[in-house]
Amino acid sequence: MKNTTKPVAIPVEPFPFIWHITRESWVWAVTAVAFVCLAVILEGVVQYVIKILVDTVSDILNQPGTSFRSAWFWAIMYPTLVFLCNWSRRGSGFAGMRWITGCESASYRVLFEHLTGHSARFFQSRFAGSLSNKISNASSGTEELLFTFLWSFLPTLATLATNLVLAFAAHPLVAAVSFGWMAVIIVINAFMVRPLSRLSFDSASSSSDLKGKIVDTSTNMSVVQQYSRIPYERKYVGGYIEGYRGKHLGAWRASEWVLVLNNFLIASFILSTVVTALMLLQQGRISIGSMVMVIFIIGGIHYSLTFLSMTATQAIQSYGQIKEGLAELLLPHEVVDVPDAPELKVQRGLIEFKEVRFAYNETPVIDKLSLSIAPAQKIGLVGRSGAGKSTLVSLLLRQYDLQQGEISIDGQPICGVTQASLRRSIAVVPQDVTLFHRSIADNIRYGRIEASDQELKEAARLALADDFIAQMPQGYETYVGERGIKLSGGQRQRIAIAR
Asked: What is the mean predicted confidence (pLDDT) over 5-25?
């Protein structure tokens, strides 16, 4: 069976990446956005109804004997519209939760699937804890950014647009002053995005490094205690803690200065708009109801701009987290299947190395090696440490690609078949056995997921592991600890043989 699966290119920039993972839940996204926009429009209508209500009551009071019927109509419309507005917000909540949780889970899935496709070289040069943190940062950052967009940016921008329309309804001059200041504030904040994004990226990168160091020390705590290096590790990791604090503080400080600048700009906007409205009222060019509406508009725009500047800093931090995670996780895969690669067909088991050359980072390890291993032949590889014995097995598993030469099984070059079929055909018991922090049964069954309980126990018996497994507290369901730390070295070897 050929591998006809074509990998889908995953965008490495945050916004295209979010668009990519939104495709699975686009209906919920559209619904949530529609409800938010409807709620904002209804809020604008509420403000206009208040203007009409004030003007109507003012006219009635100035004309004794006039019926209050029209005033009662607008008085009833006011709570009705507020009720509909709140229901629209709840609609955005129900739709938004489906969209955002769907995107977050899609982010975890897409990034983990891409991570598992990287070569051994990729994992050897990186901390497992750091990679895990990058996936978590990118996925949680996606959730936070979408949350900010849906319930902060979108309603704020829609509110600004609605208030501009209402300001124009009050008087074009009020709208012109409001629009001018809003444009100035938005443009200045837009110029701040790039430096703030860079600082947030550095902070997120430093955080990933720190968490990777903590995981590294925790994983090797037995060695730390054996050599009495606890004070050294505290100082070593402490350096990364201080480095992260400096990066985080720098990003936060820059955000605070942006907020200070925005406070001055917003205060200037309020002063200019109020003065303009009072002058128009004094000249009799707007009504009292329009003046009341302008005050509501100023309050709404003031709140929107203040909230926008605060949420913008949070959004930039989330953007930096996503960008930092994607930059490393979505590096191109080093070892990939050729298009339409067939599965390996093992008939005899003849293994051949032909003029094989391989180097680690330009350092030659194997140079022009030719070797033929006959079916069922037993061989031993002897050599000094670092001579390439383990590397030879890794090359056979195609954990790395060759710089030169060819490796074949039954005449089939391993670079031309699927990696999955190649590795399914080779059983390996490594010198340094690694087990999952799962049950003994799960670890043995990992060699053949579909194996029955009877087959699993038979494999354990053949590997001489059934006796010590029977003495475990929960037998085959006993958890072995991280990397199998609860088992002895010999027991881990037996589990690996059974697997």
From this structure: 83
- Write the pLDDT tens digit of every residue in 51-66: 788 878 887 777 776 6
Residue 291 and residue 421 in one domain: no
DSSP 419-443: HHHHHHT-----SS----SSBHHHH
In a domain, 1, yes or no: no
Task: List 168's β-bridge partners, or say none.
Answer: none
- Cα separation, 415 vs 393, in Å, equals 15
The one-letter code for the residue type at 136 is S
CB neighbours of 263 closer than 8 A, spacing ≥ 6?
306
Domain count, the chain: 3
Q: Quick one: 97 and 162 in the same domain?
A: yes
Together in a domain, 153 and 260: yes
In whole angstroms, give the CA distance from residue 100 to residue 271.
39
Torsion 487-488-489-493 (CA) sign: negative
Cβ–Cβ < 8 Å for 35, 156: no
pLDDT of 435 higher than 60: yes
Question: Does pLDDT of 30 surpass 90?
Answer: yes
Its domain, for residue 480, covers 440-498
